[in-house]
Amino acid sequence: MSIDRRLRNGLQDEASGIDPDTHDALALVQTRAVRETRRTRVFQAAAATLVAVLVAILLPLGLDRLGGEDRRITPAAPLGLEGTYVVDVVASAETRRAGVAGRWVVTFAPNGLVDLAAPEGVSGISGGSYSVEGEVMRTSSLVDQPGCQASGRALGTYRWSRVDDGLRFAVVSDDCQARVLLFANQDWERVP
Amino acid sequence: MGRSGRIDKAEEFQWLFVAEYPAVVRTTYLVLHDPDRAEEIAQDAFVQLLRHWDKVRDYDSPQAWVRRVAIRLAVRDTRRERTRVRLTRGEAVLTSAEAPGTGLDPDLLAAIGSLPTQQRCVVVLFYYEDRPMEEVAEIVGCSTATGWVHLHKARKRLGVLLSEEVSSDVD
Q1: Chain centre to alpha carbon of residue A16
Q2: Interchain contact, A20 vs B39, CB within 8 Å
Q3: What would the pLDDT profile of A93-131 be if each residue is shown by its tens digit?
Q4: How close B86 gets to chain A, by Cα (Å)?
Q5: How far apart are CA B159 and CA B147, in angstroms?
Q6: A3 and B155 in contact by Cβ < 8 A?
Q7: Model ipTM value
Q8: Number of alpha helices (DSSP H) and beta strands (DSSP E) in chain B
C-alpha cells in the first residue's frame, strides 16, 4: 500500500470514531453568538459614549489652545442654525458603506453642541460641536466614524444657506466622507 | 430586511451547521488529536461564522471560511500547547502525539501527530477532506506552491517514520 493510500485510509478510520452531537452544539453556538454580539455592542456603545464626551469636552478647548484661526470652534456663537432638523440620507452603496443611510434627526443647540439621532441600526455616533461665522459652519460631528478620526479630519467646513425653513450645506473642505454624505448630500428639513 | 428575511438567514445557517459541523470537528480532531478540544474549537469557529453570517453567507464558500477559522484556531492552540509543554518540561511529549487513536493504524497517527502543525493541517485537508491543493492552501493561509512544499516534506518525513517508500508523485 502506498503512503498516500495509507494516509487516506488511516485518517478516514480515525475520524469515523468522532461523532459530535450536532443538535446540542447548534444551540450552544447560537447562545454564545448572541451573548458575544451583545457584549461587543455594549462595549462599542460605551466606547462611543466616552469618545463623544471627550470630544464635546476636549475638542473646543484643544482647538482654542491651538490658536489657529481656521481650526477654531466658538460654541458660544452659533448664529442662526439653532433648531432641530430631519435629514433623509438616501440609501445607496456609498451611503451604506459610510453607515449614514436612513433618517437622521439633528439638533443644533444654542450652546454650540450638535445632537445626532441616528437611523435605526446605526450605533456609535457622536454629535460633537459646531460654530458659525457668517455663512461658514464648522463642525466636529461624526468624528468617531471610520475614516474621520485622523487629526486632519476631525473638523469639516461647510457653507450653509436657508432653503425655505430648512438648511442646505455645501462642502468647503471635509475629508470625512460620512459627514459629507450626511451634511451636503441633501437639504435639511426643519422640525417645527 | 423583513422578518421573513431573518428567518431565511437563520435557517440557512442551521442547514450549513448541520451539514458541516461534524466534518469540521473531525478535521480539527485530526489536527489536534484531542476530541474535546476539537469540539470546542469547531464551536468557536461557528460562533464567529454566525456573528459574521450577514457577510459570509454571500461568499462563494462559507464552508471554506469556517474551516479556515477552525484550522487557524487549532494551529494557535497547538502552538500554545507546545509553549506550555516547553515551559513545564516534565511533560516531554505533545498531547497530540500521544493521544490514543480510535483508528486502526496507531503508528500512522503517531507519525502524523509528530509533524509540524502546518504540515499536519495540509495532510489532513489534502488526504482526509480530499481537497485540491488550491483550497488547502487557502484554508491554511499560504500559497499553493507552499502548500505543495508542506505536503512533500510531510510525506518524506512520514516515509522515514513509518519505513515506507515514498514515490515522488502523490497518489
Answers
A1: 49
A2: yes
A3: 888 888 888 899 898 888 778 888 888 877 767 777 888
A4: 28
A5: 18
A6: yes
A7: 0.81
A8: 9, 0
